[in-house]
């Protein structure tokens, strides 16, 4: 992590992305470089009703407002890509011939990152002149209801590391931006609630384990990614973020996440460890002879039925679990051709660098 952070910081500094850094402001990139940057700041300032006459190439960054510095940082960051990050890490490795420990560490990092800088992946994570911030992915609805629905998929073709890294990154950026949005809401801006759904959540929320398979499970993962998500689950509601997970194996989820879930839908569950974790959520005992009929029923719930328990109520009557039969929506998975015909080729050609362009909170 130290090598990765150092390399990324150097690249951001050299590209002029760290616009608020005093060292950068006093250097050759400490002013607006050309008319494109001037026009960018002019558009940002115009939205706030500021003076546009004093902007020109050479305007010092220290004279810009925080929002203008952020807009400039976003613009400059689009010149960078993952390939440059990997190349910088390779130069570190070449200089560490005598430090075998650090060299081995870097080899492990490069083995994971190199796949993002080769073949089609190099194009997907390459630099881009335009982009949509991750935090704005949900704001693609109409004017009356801007909060649209975005599906990020393709995880079936990813390895364990790529899936955990990319989906965790997307979720953490969305959450971090929601914290910023809440501060803006205190000033009068209105934002709709954000809903994030995690399909096969245990594969994302627990991260990539370095231990043996026998050390995993029981929801007690020691990976940093799980601790990040546990914080999100505990604090999300006050930031108007509602997190939902779907998983086949409850016992593989981090315990801090499971304990923060208020609403639960449970289908047939056969693993004893899973049933031990589910029963307390339903307000039933998981130990001894008490409520054993509930535990047995979890293993033989008929197909298409589920036990639902909704936790947000001040009336104990509405907190009781109920047997429900969710409506089944029958549909066919579209092919790539059908997606292109319906949404246009742009939906398939948009690169990941467009999607990962930084914005308000980064």
Would you mind describing this structure in some detail?
The strands form two sheets. Strands 3-4-5 form a three-stranded antiparallel sheet, with no helix packed on it. Helix 1 (2-14) crosses helix 5 and helix 3 crosses helix 4. The chain has 362 residues and is mainly alpha-helical. It has 16 helices and five strands. 42% of the residues lie in helices and 6% in strands. Mean pLDDT is 81; it is low at 211-219 and 347-362. The protein has helices spanning 2-14, 22-25, 35-46, 66-77, 82-94, 100-113, 119-124, 160-185, 202-205, 224-235, 255-258, 272-281, 292-298, 336-343, 346-349, 352-355; strands spanning 194-198, 241-245, 264-266, 306-309, 322-324. Among the domains are: 2-126, no CATH class; 130-193 and 201-213 and 222-237 and 335-362, no CATH class. The radius of gyration is 24 Å and the shape is globular.
Q: State the separation between the terminal residues, measured CA to CA.
A: 18 Å
* Share of residues in helices: 40-55%
- Tally of DSSP helical segments: 16
Poorly predicted regions: 211-219, 347-362
Shape: globular
Alpha-beta content class: mainly alpha
Major beta sheet, specifics? 3 strands, antiparallel
Strand content: 5-15%
Radius of gyration: 24 Å
